[in-house]
Amino acid sequence: MQQLHCSLRLVAFLLFSLFTATLLAQTDTVSSEKVLREAVVSVKRPTVERQLDKTVVNVAGSVLANGNNTLELLQKSPGVVVTPQGAVMLEGKSGVMVMVDGKPTQLSGDQLVAFLQGIPAETVSKIELIARPSSKYDAEGVSGIINIKLKKNQNLGLNGNLSAGTTQSIHNRLRGGLNLNYRPGRVNLFGNTNWLDGAQSVGQNIERFANGKVYEQQNPMIEQFGSKSFKAGADFFANERHTFGILALGNFYDNDTRRDNLTLIRNEGSSRIDSSLQSRILAPSGNDRLTYNFNYRFSDTLGNELTFDADRIAFRSSGTNTLNNQRFNAESIPQNADALLTNIGSDINVWSLKTDYIKNTKKGLKLETGAKINWTNAQNDIQTTYTKDDITQADPGRSNRFDYRENIAAAYANIGKKGQKLNWQVGLRAERTQIEGASTDLYGTVLNNPDTAYLGLFPTAYLQYTLKPDHQLGFSYNRRLSRPAYQDMNPFVWQTDPFVSERGNPYLQPAYTNSVQLTYTYKYAASIAFGYSRTTDMVSTITRQVGDQVYTQPQNLQQQDNLSLNISTPLPIKSWWEGYLWLGVWHNRFQAQLTDGTLDTGAFGGGCYLSQQFNLGKGYRAEASFWAQFPTQEGIFRNRGIAGVTVGAKKTFWKDKATLSLSINDLFRTQRWTDTVDFGSVRGTVRNTWESQNIALGFSWNFGNPNLKTRNRNSAADDASGRIKGRTE
């Protein structure tokens, strides 16, 4: 009851803020409002732009987007690392909040990977890499925000875009999309739909050492996947100041994975096979995500703006994992057989309310303030049965139901000013989180997640000083947090094969980071940046060995220190030849007291991104890019680095309204990922391969009038970002 009263009071505060801010905005602009004409300027943007508070990768029009999905775009973006486990890192740090059009993906781990793989790169307009967000953004995401902005139709009348393509490697992928917009007057109707259907081969080889034995696993798999998504909405322009909008977003993903696992077991120092195990794993899964948004916006010609958003997000996922095992002795004679069947389902609902107000004063000050509340209800159910000697029975140790509730209330204020020499902004955000959770197994035993309520303050500060017209110095500071993924706090056991399992941790704590950066910029283009951050209680995946079994579990590390150096610069070689270079180097140090010993290790890492664009005339363009992620360490795991080269060309025709593109991805087949671990009782190596080398053909056709601007708006459900976690195998 007390929680309900707190929620009602905050809702009343939101409505009061909406009413008061509207009156202030109306009063301030009655006598001083001016009517300004809109100037339309057509400028070709570079592939990568370095802006004051972020790096922008302009994907629209790039040949390199052809045939790729959005996950592959992220892998090629400056400073971004995507591991095979689905972890997304920015400038060497994990804990990134991934958003699409300013709205949280609500996903992490395998589900995030599956979602991004289902978005064709041709539908992406730009990717914003925001390593140090201001207080206006949710505090979630210790290493920053990645905002993927999709293309928007900008035409009057009935118009849109039609796209289709095919990608060929060992298997084929087909994709298509349609984007429509209709604005006869005060009402703007818009919608789009995209689909993807394909398959790929994935290879995984594991060599693991335990108790004097060597386990060599060959784990080839075939993934068949399909994705369908839609966006539909309407904006009603009551007058020049007031706009109302509704929006619905949907994404539906299906995956069917088949693995044939062969494990050879021998003594260390011997080549003789003592025994072996053959396993067939069938894992169909799927998830549906629906988002509903209502939006109100007030704006005037002086830049004052008030927005209000109400959102609901519904996420559903289900899947089964059938594990059939057949053991053999040293003479390859069949021994005992068994089977493990696991059914998993997730049901997560998020409700959000948010209001933001921007005020520009006559003295040049810009004031921003806002408030927000989130309610989250998550239910996860895992049921497992074990079959041996034709007898099937429930497995209580691997079955449970996990119920989780979370309320977050937040408010923020920013103030800043732009001057001839000095630009500055300071802000403060406050977020209060209250959580409750309970896990119940088949024995009826209830494990209550430690009920927690905590308040966090998150200050930010930005300064930019112009030394001379071509030289600027910048400084930034912020504090952020990263809450654990919902499913990570469920003490479930998920058996991926007879020797490997995953477990949750109900005692995870949120991670906090403090970050500072000093930047020098030349001609508002080339820059060099030095950064330092310290993260406490960072959540990292830890692997433990118990007998012949190995399991992974998320745990809090006491501390991570990160030092970084980032250099970025455009490379204008000729009028018809442009380029861009980004080079980043960082050093991470991890400290933790774990069950298997003390972790105190440091490692250098880094990345490189080089792109080249050639305007060949008569509608022909060519592009090439090289990207690399240097060897580094993340927690107890060390990877050997990865690199790739992509080349492509495109031709525009039909008065530049149609485009035909051809590209080759991973030209030299160098995209291979290798992880090694040697900590405590765990020693081993994991090697991953996939169909990274492929050839892609794409077609796009724009139709309509190029004069309409449609609205960009964010949702209220930003703070639940990246915390819904699932699996696709």
Description of the molecule:
The chain is mainly beta. It has one domain (2-726): TonB-dependent receptor, beta-barrel domain (Maltoporin, Chain A). Helix content is 6%, strand content 66%. The protein contains three helices and 40 strands. The chain has a 30-stranded mixed β-sheet that branches. β27 and β28 (526-546) form a beta hairpin. The longest helix is centred in the N-terminal third of the chain and has 28 residues, at 2-29. The two termini are 41 Å apart. 41% of the residues are buried.
Based on the model shown, name its key terms.
single chain; about 725 residues; mainly beta; Maltoporin, Chain A; 30-stranded mixed β-sheet; 6-stranded mixed β-sheet; 3 helices; disordered N terminus
Number of domains: 1
Count of beta strands: 40
Tell me the β content: over 45%
Helix content: under 10%
Radius of gyration: 26 Å
Number of helices in the DSSP assignment? 3
The first-to-last residue Cα distance is 41 Å
The CATH topology turns out to be: Maltoporin, Chain A
